[in-house]
Amino acid sequence: MKLSRKLPLNAIRVFDAVARLGSFTRAGEELGMTQTAVSYQIKLLEEHVEDLLFIRQTRRISLTQTGERLAPKVSEAFGLLAEAMAEARQEESGILEIRSTPTFASHWLARHIGAFQLQHPGLAVRILRIDKPVDFRADNADVAIWRGERPPADVVAHELFRLQYAPMLSPKLAETIGGVTTPADLLKLPLIGGSSKWWGIWFQSNGIYTPLPGTITIDADGALDLEGSAAIAGHGVALLSPFLHREELKADRLIMPFEAFKKDDLSYWLISPKSRRQSVKVQTFRQWLLETLPPYLSDLSAAAQ
Predict the structure, then answer these.
(1) Which of 52, 124, 134, 268 has the fewest beta carbons closer than 10 A?
(2) CATH, residue 80
(3) Which of 41, 68, 88 is the last residue of a domain?
(4) What is the domain extent for residue 211?
């Protein structure tokens, strides 16, 4: 018996679209099918697996446990098929889509990606900033740089680094109190950041147990690029990473009075979908990043010692 008779490939393709888009109607629009045809294909697949794949409610559908188990495998399978076709056409050029946390994107990746493009002129790069984990099933991203305790499930992941943070401020702000010579001097200035807990840990590790101000100016909800910009503008002192703000320190737009660091609770990860683990452009970018980062990280480690 032919494989097409054994496996309802068209129904599986429809299931992937419905699971990814969360809608029979939207899946039909994407596939050029009526909603009735979509429903029929899902019914065929449910008969094939002998279980329901979706819970159908008024104006809403959700995956059943069986659907939840099936969806990532189906998505990965279609990704592998697309990758195989690209490899067959020897598509080593094209567009590399990268998703990244905002500060890493603007303060490191954007400043160094030009070197990668010079090495690979046939490969265009598109970088988008993200503030939540990327969903590779619904996103065209090839890779992502994400900060978290652990990487999302069902991805290929490489732990890149864990940052160290120290107080930074503009030289002009330091001059307003005659300079910053001791950690206690920082309490005379506005503190930037959404986490008074981090500030409390930093001060206590430097022998200061004075209660912090009741409010901390400019709560950027952990967006280090915004907190760094506020510090450069002289609005206060921010806990920032010398790795991400290397250029600002070199240009004296920021100063770091003390090499006393607070270690991040989370790591930065390079992640990519399993369906693209053999992709030439993904492997090329991964190799470049893992080769380019270490000198910068070694400088960071030396500063933290």
Answers:
(1) 124
(2) 1.10.10.10
(3) 88
(4) 164-263
